[in-house]
Amino acid sequence: MAKLTIDERVLDVDPQLTVIQAAAANGIEIPHFCWHPKLSVAGNCRMCLVEVEKMPKLAIACATQVAEGMVVRTKSDRVIKARNAVMEFLLINHPLDCPICDEAGECKLQDYAYKYSIGYSRFDEDKVHKPKRVELGPRVLLDVERCIMCSRCVRFADEVARQPVLTFTQRGTHVVLTTFPETQLDNRYSMNVVEICPVGALTSRDFRFKSRVWEMSSTDTICAGCSRGCNMNMWVRNNEILRLTPRHNEDVNSYWMCDDGRLKTFPWVNSPRRLSGPLVRKDGQLLETGWDEAIAKAATDLRLFRKGEVAAIGSPFATNEDNYAFQKVMRENLGVKFLDFVEHIVDGDEDDLLIRADKTPNARGARAVGVRPASPSEGLPAILKGISGGSIKALYVLEDNIASDPKIREVLTNLDLLIVHAHERNETTEMADVVFSASTYAEKHGTFVNFQGRVQRIRAAIATLEQDRALDGFAMSRWDKFASQNDKWGKGPRRDARPSWRIVTALGAALGAKAKFQTSEDVFREITERVPEFKGLTFMSVGIRGHMLAARQAAAKPVSVT
Ligand code: SF4
Ligand code: SF4
């Protein structure tokens, strides 16, 4: 270790670190634009200049390695003067766009202008004008005037996405970021450049001009697009999801997310096609009904079948709590032996950065909490065979459109009873006798287990009718209470959907079960008591970074992301 002094604080740090890394690790902020912890050092913005004793000139903290006995000052008069000069230089040609810029409110240049600039401009010439709306690729737009030439996006494309298509042309104040001829920024991680751009030069075609950042709430949750389970923030205004952005977790996704995860995992949550409540089939038609009526009908219909005639399909899209409560009711109250789920693997569609071939967020967890056959003769192939042969007459399906596969759809036509949990009408609900309107991953609390065996929390970012009713005494988790009290959900439409664990708990009660889970945390507590891999965990201990399942801890390796 090296002994280093920064602003009169004596620190013991790894001698391999640079001054900016050592400062960041010890909670000391050194302002910077071009430096990013996961990119190579460019040293071009000069914002991180610091004074190092015995060095005649100011040094850039991002490229200065620490040394034994080094004394660094980040707030001396010389440093402040240099920072003022850098800010003045950067602002000479920067447009006064803040009132219409998507980045306002989360812009480093705006923040540093308040903190580190002199507060007025000595420059009264015309600013250099450059193109304002350049399509760098299908998902990212560039406002060249706002670019401060930090080169973060260039280095991201070269070093992380490994698609080196960005470069600078021209000289001096006329420098322009652009793509090489005949190329465009269209890799599967292209939208990460929008977050790492320290200003509003790069914007997402999907999100731009939709909302000011301070009008949205942000919830720490997990992407449901594949079994990586990237940590992310879900941004909501008036109960509608507007964007997803990555949340740093070095063990899972570092600072990144893929474009599919950002764009494809939320429009269906906002969709007007969502179910507006439970449905039951009468005279061949699916008709809306109340929750009590739907649960009573499902319980009555299921009682008509003998043990062995009912099978159950859990869901790798649903939480551990949903799957656990589901398999418990199926096994303990209906004597179901045939229990499995359908995998959603897209062979070959994965890479060595984040994207996984398993396009579900919780296959590992569904299996761990008991959605698996006791023997291969009771798994999915046996279920389909049993339905085709007539020995299985009733099927209960949790949050999975299994009939989107034409072969399975054909098999399901042999059933006498089909009960389904779904978010919107689909091929499976169209065949069902009872449909329960299930909350999506954005509307409930719970846990997923990613492909590494890491338990991670999802949190409700938008409210359903049930969560609103909770204010009138319906059981409410402390997490929801907090959100309600802080008016986090805001106004906007509420869907009449419930988490699957709550629906099957009510069904279990109608079938005579004793379990009366009030919150998802109650279900998780029982999982930790009954499933050894989860032993000792709580929602609190899983926290915002997740926790490896007990059996997996020894094998866990951090993700290898540049
Ligand atoms: S577009 Fe943004 S990230 Fe790229 S060089 Fe310009 S300021 Fe930096
Ligand atoms: S890699 Fe998977 S988990 Fe991560 S953002 Fe993409 S789809 Fe979501």
Question: Would you kindly provide a written description of the structure presented here, covering whatever features stand out?
Answer:
The chain is of the alpha+beta class and 562 residues long. The protein has three domains: 2-91, Ubiquitin-like (UB roll) (Roll), CATH 3.10.20.740; 96-270, Alpha-Beta Plaits; 279-457 and 493-555, Rossmann fold (3-Layer(aba) Sandwich). Helix content is 26%, strand content 17%. It contains 17 helices and 23 strands. The strands form six sheets. Strands 15-14-20-19-18-16-17 form a seven-stranded mixed β-sheet, sandwiched between helices. α12 links the parallel β18 (394-397) and β19 (417-422). α9 (320-334) packs parallel to α15 (500-510) and α9 (320-334) packs across α16 (520-530). The protein is elongated and about 85 Å long. It starts with a strand and ends in a 14-residue tail after the last strand. Residues 223, 225-226, 228-230, 253, 257-258, 260-261, 354-356 line the site of one iron/sulfur cluster. One iron/sulfur cluster (SF4) binds at residues 223, 225-226, 228-230, 253, 257-258, 260-261, 354-356.
What labels would you give this structure?
single chain; about 550 residues; alpha+beta; Ubiquitin-like (UB roll); Alpha-Beta Plaits; Rossmann fold; seven-stranded mixed sheet; five-stranded mixed sheet; 17 helices; elongated; disordered C terminus; binds iron/sulfur cluster
